[in-house]
Design goal:
Layout: E1 2-6, H1 11-20, E2 26-30, H2 47-62, E3 66-75, H3 96-106, E4 116-126, E5 132-144, E6 160-162, E7 167-168, H4 174-180, H5 182-201
Parallel strand pairs: 1-2, 1-3
Antiparallel strand pairs: 3-4, 4-5, 5-6, 6-7
Helix pairs in contact: 4-5
Length: about 200
């Protein structure tokens, strides 16, 4: 069993990752389950930089293997915003409703064909010494609706439409979302590297 710490307090992300990591091989805990974890300042200018910061700083502090990810939404009509500020776009970290309201306000009057966007996810694994061992990234293309729809997911999911399905991430079945999402695509690149690393360490 390979013990991993997920460098976030977001329980919904933890659930998604646990579904992708076989329980018989990996044990995954979130920071909410570990006393003494620290808050890492996300000062990077890219998702990859922030994922590395969260993984390495937390790993050095805890002396544990830490898996961190940084993800967010880039909207073409907004020159890539909210980008790395996705979780705090409206000012308060993690206020999904406020972030969605601001996004809709910023896109007011923008026609549907110009509301294209993509989700990004970057994953980083740090060893207990704070040295990056694995990185992987994934994206998922869609567009931003003019109003929210669906009750699943989190973040911008109620606004992010997968055009081929004519549904938002918040409307899609979890199995379908898991197949399409930026996080799943990054994990599919990450997992073979993780298996090779664990085999080498055994």
């Amino acid at each position: 069993m390979f013990d991993l710490v997920l460098g976030t307090n977001n329980q919904k992300k933890l659930i998604e990752l646990r579904l992708m990591l076989p329980e018989e091989h990996y044990s995954l805990q979130s920071l909410a389950e570990i006393p003494g974890s620290i808050d890492v300042d996300e000062t990077g200018t890219t998702f990859k930089e922030n994922a590395a910061l969260k993984a390495t700083e937390q790993a050095k502090h805890l002396g544990r293997w830490v898996l961190a990810e940084d993800s967010g939404l880039s909207v073409d009509a907004l020159n890539g915003e909210p980008g790395v500020y996705s979780a705090r776009y409206a000012g308060t970290h993690g206020d999904d409703e406020a972030n969605n309201r601001k996004l809709l306000s910023e896109l007011d009057g923008v026609p549907g064909e110009k509301r294209t966007a993509r989700y990004h996810c970057e994953i980083c694994l740090s060893d207990p010494d704070g040295i990056v061992q694995i990185t992987a990234g994934g994206t998922c293309a869609g567009r931003i609706r003019t109003s929210a729809s669906g009750v699943g997911g989190f973040g911008y999911d109620p606004l992010f439409e997968i055009m081929e399905y004519h549904k938002t991430f918040a409307e899609l079945d979890l199995t379908v979302k898991r197949a399409l999402s930026h996080r799943s695509r990054a994990l599919r690149l990450f997992l073979p590297q993780l298996r090779r690393l664990v085999a080498k360490l055994d």
